[in-house]
Amino acid sequence: MVAGSGQAPQERVRGVRVRGIYATAITRLLLDNGIPVVDASDQIIERFGDEVYEGGVALVTVKDRDDRRGLVIVGAKPLVNDVLEALRKALPLSPLVVMPAELYATYLCRVIGGGMVELPGGVKGQLEGGGVKGELVVAHVVRFRGLTPVLRRGVMVVGEYARLVEGARHSVSEHIRGAERAMLLTLAMRAGLEGWGVRWRSSARRAEMSELLEELHALRRKAERVKESAGALSSPEKLSEGEVLAFIPLALEDKVRLDRVRGRQVSTLKYHHLFKACGERYSPLVDLLESFCECCDVNCLSKRLLRSIIADLRRPLLTVLHEKPGEGVIRIEGKATLLSLDPPIFKLERRIRGGGTYDGLGLPKEEGDRAVSLVTPFSHVLPHLYFDREGKLKGVYVNVNTPIEPCPPSSVWYIDVYVDVVWTQEGGVKIVDINKLRGAGERGVLSPAAVKKFEELAAQVADKLARGHDIDSLARLAVELSCEDKSS
User: Fold this and answer.
1) Is 488 part of a structural domain of the chain?
2) pLDDT value for 312
3) Going by C-beta distance under 8 Å and a sequence separation of 6 or more, which residues neighbour residue 34?
């Protein structure tokens, strides 16, 4: 039986395409929520049989981020909303960042100067080529720079098999090659679409020629209506639907949740997804060890591999990758020494350039200052101590975050959760940016459960910091606030 053939004719099924190291776990989650999985890979078909569809049309795609530390979700409403709701429920401690405009949507924008435009709802975007201040421009979103949409002049409309773009050249998805690619380009050229370019999507390879041609003509009619509608408007407006683009950087606890979900389908080590995210050196080793799960102690296998990954970090320089949800990554690099092997604690030392003030502390940065950071894998906190040139402690800044994850060969990574705790001689202990944490909850970036957890962590840090703020006390604090999954 062809995968999925017992449920419905495959060519009529609309659903979600899933790819990457999280594919098995995400497929199980989607199916449990009644969401069809289509265009399934050979491995997913082998693991799920006729629960999934080999064919079908993917209206939503869930895949790895480039660094494998999170998920990218892109696709059409309303299905993409169902997917995001299912993932939010299953991954309560990970941020959900939804882009402020729809990818490939067409907007009527107002030029506000400096190459920037205003979209509906006050969203600011960047217009390629700029424009005259006050001008109303029809443009479509082609990509994002951080949270800022980048737009290109002209109309774009989106279908299941193709996108139609005003003034563009015909092109084909990189996933379609050879004779199929040539056939689709020929079809686009012969479709009578002067002034419009066709971008064939990967789903086009599974459709009949008649369906493809019918969609092209429907998209042309829709695009012309969009152009006409813009002339009657006098303020920013969305003119055609695009695709929701969202990102979920995965907290370690949620990676472990996905391990358990995957374990319902195939043999899975704890920290499977953490190991896979560590790169090609560890990926085949995980696969090999999981083949021994039926005859060996699974926890022992997992702990030994974890120990190997942490040992890989013992290098002269260590880089901390501090990810701010939706805002990118700040890199902190310093000289690293191992303070403790079990539990692992690294001391990261940096020289500070003079000028400006320390964030949260309100103290001046002075030449000769030295920063010491205590990096403890799996800890929810990263303490930073700042000393003057004589070695006197100026202040302490404790970052609250998702558990710190080892990223061999020379990095660690975590997600910042907005709130931090500081200490100075003059001001004592303070929790800072608690309103930013709560604001992230109000915007839906963090779940109520995550906001509650991180508020409680900040309160614990404040209590401990009031009792001691030397290196030994802060090292103990980092160990005490390691995630509960660390040793189980």
Assistant:
1) no
2) 87
3) none
Do residues 52 and 38 make contact, with C-beta atoms less than 8 angstroms apart?
yes
Q: Containing domain of residue 64, as a range?
A: 10-98
Instruction: Report residue 160 as tokens.
Output: 């299941």
Q: What is the spatial distance between Cα 446 and Cα 401, in angstroms, rounded to a whole number?
A: 13
Distance CA 147, CA 99 (A): 6
Cα–Cα distance between 220 and 156 in angstroms, integer?
10
Q: pLDDT digits over 270-321, tens only?
A: 999 999 999 888 888 888 888 877 767 777 888 888 888 988 888 899 999 9
Are 91 and 113 in a shared domain?
Answer: no
Q: Please name the residues in contact with 349: beta carbons below 8 A apart, sequence gap of 6 or more.
A: 334, 335, 336, 337, 370, 371, 372, 373
Q: Give the DSSP H or E segment for 184.
A: helix 178-189
Longest alpha-carbon distance in the chain: 79
In a domain, 247, yes or no: no
Please report, to the nearest 10 degrees, the dihedral formed by the alpha carbons of residues 123, 125, 131, 137 taken in order. Answer: -60
59: number of CA atoms within 13 Å, CB side? Answer: 17
Are 329 and 439 part of one and the same domain?
yes
Cα angle vertex 143, ends 74, 230, to 5°?
95
3-class DSSP state for residue 91? coil
Give the chain's domain count: 4
- For the record, the structure tokens of 467 come out as 């009792």
Residue 248 falls inside a structural domain: no
State both tokens at 351: 């020289």
Rounded to 5 degrees, φ, ψ at 196 are -130, 145
Give the tens place of pLDDT for each residue, 136-175: 999 999 999 999 999 999 999 999 999 999 999 999 999 9
What's the pLDDT score for residue 12?
Answer: 75
**Residue 485 pLDDT:** 46
